[in-house]
Model the fold of this input.
Amino acid sequence: MATGLLLGGCGGGAGVDLMAGSSPEAARALLAQMAREGPVLLQTFDGRLDASSDTAQGIDGLSADALRQAAEDGVEGLTVRFTADPASAVAGGRLVLAEGVEGPSICAADPTGVSGGLRAGFCTGERALAAVRLPAEEGPLTERRVWRVMRRLFPDDYPSAYGFGWLGNRISIGIGLGF
Done:
């Protein structure tokens, strides 16, 4: 029983749901391409605040800078910089993080409606290449919750790209000779 309690206490909370029609692999491929060219646009919305401001806003206790840093840190195996300035961002796609908003698409210019949880989408125009939702949890938004969302939205492609993995993943072994 004690082991069960210990393991239960180590859980990461609710799972991150992948929205229907999402392609995280395609989103990561586009993000990687854009990251090589420069900073990627990050838009944030908090449905509980007045979103009429054009300035970058934080979400539920995380400042805009802390949210940007958590998003950058949450993408494993890829160095990416996010910016809230559309003029300095490369063209092609944008990351949208929204807390407490609901709507027909995470990629809408201004998601509306109130719901619980953190939603994220990697958008090309009004279309989401991939979108995820983390159900509402107790307490303010934390970096760890942002990391979980980012890792589901942009999964690490190391095993599929380089062929090395464990327990069911492909393992490649090679022998080389040189003179």
Summary: Confidence is low (pLDDT under 50) at residues 1-11, 50-55. The chain has one domain: 14-156. The first strand starts at residue 17 and ends at 18.
